[in-house]
Amino acid sequence: MVAVHNTSLLCSEPTKSRTNDDLATNCATIIFSADRAYALFNNILLAQHGCLLKLNMNDPNTANEPEVNANILQVKSLGPSTDNTFLYNLFRPYGALQYCRTVLDNSRFKGVALVQYFRQEDADDAQRELVRMMVEIFLPE
Q1: pTM of the model
Q2: Whole-angstrom Cα distance, residue 21 to residue 35?
Q3: Which of the four CATH numbers 3.30.70.330, 3.30.360.10, 3.40.50.300, 3.40.50.10300 does domain 71-137 have?
């Protein structure tokens, strides 16, 4: 499972009002949210600040970031109501995502998205399974 650095610190201190079961449930929610935040928001442009948002999975002082070994998938023919959260929910079951975002052209969605897994095997599984759902996935040229 992919987890953003310090997520475990958010889970490590139970309060008197929480049971162990509550704590486990809350930790799973936090980790899931951290995983989604990484896939959806890492390296986005913060226009008001003129910089990119950089999220780390590991403590930058002690560990390297995981290597990305997968091709970027180009997803086409998506409906106009498709958003990044929908994409994440569609693609995440097949593996940890490095990147998962709709492509905008002049701030308008044109039915195309880019998705990248960390592992090529996960990308292959997603492509094989989602083609059955009639989602067009291509390798960019």
Answers
A1: 0.70
A2: 21
A3: 3.30.70.330
